[in-house]
Amino acid sequence: MNGIEVMVAEHDNILRFNNVVRRACAGILEGKEVCIGDFRNMVEFVRGYADRHHHGKEEKILFVDMVAHLGQIGRNLVTHGMLVEHDLARLHISELEAALNQYETGYSVGAKLDIITSAVAYTKLLKRHIDKENAIVYVYAEKNLPKEVMAGANAQMETAEKEAAESGVQKKYLAILAALESKY
User: Fold this and answer.
1) What is the pTM of this model?
2) Burial letters for 126-154: b for 16+ Cβ neighbours within 10 Å, e otherwise?
3) What is the spatial distance between Cα 96 and Cα 182, in angstroms, rounded to a whole number?
4) Lowest mean pLDDT across 1-5, 42-46, 126-130
5) Are 145 and 30 in contact (CB under 8 A)?
6) pLDDT for res 1
7) Cα separation values, 108 from 20, 100, 115, Å
8) Distance CA 138, CA 67 (A)
9) Helix or strand or coil: residue 85?
10) pLDDT tens-digit series, residues 48-67
11) How far apart are CA 96 and CA 44, in angstroms?
12) Rounded distance between C-alpha atoms, residue 121 and residue 116, angstroms
């Protein structure tokens, strides 16, 4: 698998995660209690897998090459599109964590609302974001980056993937996802 194929597979895992989050939030709306531990695991999954692991490869490898080699279109796609959305996703997760903290200090309807709002906003953003990356950004990069640059990016992503596997990143976060999927 080349780097893009690995990132598309990671997108599939993130979309599975989004379904879990939405089901957990729907449960709250149906009267179930907020399971703080599960939502903390969701925050950990996003920060460790979706952001550090997945977005890290995009931001440190692929997007750097796109900005350097694809002119204004590449710069616009990355700096005014994908990176802005990565930052917005981080904001939603920070707001979710703040709402969880507030909820833990004493139940409030406002904190519960903020948990649901932040979590669902994240899922909606990531769904659109992933659709754009898979259908536009990655395709544009593969078609337009010079072959030697794309080969270099693939080699760097392969190295990053191997290092992550050696330290158990994928195993850890996919186990969290599987546990959440079995519950929700």
Assistant:
1) 0.96
2) bbebbeebeeebbebbbeebeeebbeebb
3) 22
4) 1-5
5) no
6) 78
7) 23, 11, 11
8) 13
9) helix
10) 999 999 999 999 999 999 99
11) 11
12) 8
pLDDT tens, position by position, 70-111: 999 999 999 999 999 999 999 999 999 999 999 999 878 999
92 in helix, strand or coil?
helix
Query: Could you tell me the two tokens for 44?
Result: 């950990």
Q: How many CB atoms lie within 10 A of CB 101?
A: 11
Contact 119, 42 (CB under 8 A): yes
CATH superfamily to which 3-183 belongs? nmb1532 protein domain like (1.20.120.520)
Helices (DSSP H) in 1-82: which residue ranges?
3-29, 36-45, 56-57, 63-69, 71-77
Evaluate whether 57 touches 3 at the Cβ level (below 8 Å).
yes
Nearest CA to 83 out of 58, 113, 114 is that of 58
Q: What is the pLDDT of residue 108?
A: 87
How many C-beta atoms surround the C-beta of residue 76 within 10 A? 12
Angle between helices 83-105 and 109-132 in degrees, nearest 10: 160
